[in-house]
Design goal:
Elements lengths: L4 H35 L5 H38 L16 H6 L7 H10 L1
Helix pairs in contact: 1-2
Bound molecules: zinc ion.
Zinc ion binds next to helix 4.
Organism: Acetomicrobium flavidum
Keywords: Metal-binding, Zinc, Zinc-finger
Protein name: Transcriptional regulator, TraR/DksA family
C-alpha cells in the first residue's frame, strides 16, 4: 500500500525527458514547415501552404498539450520534494487518488470524480 515515492519520481523524470524530446521534435518539424513555405514558389505552392497550415495547427495543438502536461509533472515533482504527504491526494477533495490512476498518470492532481467534474465544466 501507499505510494512508492522513488519509483514515482523516476517515472515523472522519465516522462519529463520524453516530453522534452517530443517538444524538440515538434519544434524541428515546425521550422521545417517554415523553410518549405519560403522556398515553395512552384505550382504546388497552394497545396503546400494548405498542408502547412494544417500541420502548424496540429503542431501547436500538440505543443500546447505537452506544455500542460509538463506543468503538471513539474507540479507533481515539486510536491514530491516539498510536500510528500500531499502527494497522491486529490487537490480538490483531499481524498487519495485511485492507485490505478496514479499508476498510469503519476502526475494526476485530481481523483477521477473531481477530474470528471472539472472536465464537464469546461
Ligand atoms: Zn477529488
Amino acid at each position: 500500500m501507499g505510494v512508492d515515492y522513488e519509483e514515482t519520481k523516476r517515472k515523472l523524470i522519465e516522462k519529463k525527458q520524453e516530453l522534452g524530446k517530443m517538444m524538440e521534435d515538434l519544434l524541428a518539424d515546425a521550422s521545417d514547415v517554415d523553410v518549405n513555405e519560403l522556398s515553395s514558389l512552384d505550382t504546388n505552392h497552394l497545396v503546400d501552404s494548405a498542408t502547412n497550415m494544417i500541420n502548424r495547427e496540429e503542431i501547436s495543438g500538440k505543443l500546447e498539450s505537452i506544455k500542460v502536461m509538463l506543468l503538471d509533472i513539474e507540479h507533481a515533482l515539486a510536491k514530491l520534494e516539498k510536500n510528500k504527504e500531499k502527494f497522491g491526494l486529490c487537490e480538490l477533495c483531499n481524498k487519495p487518488i485511485e492507485e490505478q490512476r496514479l499508476a498510469v498518470i503519476p502526475w494526476s492532481r485530481y481523483c477521477i470524480a473531481c477530474k470528471t467534474k472539472l472536465d464537464k465544466r469546461r
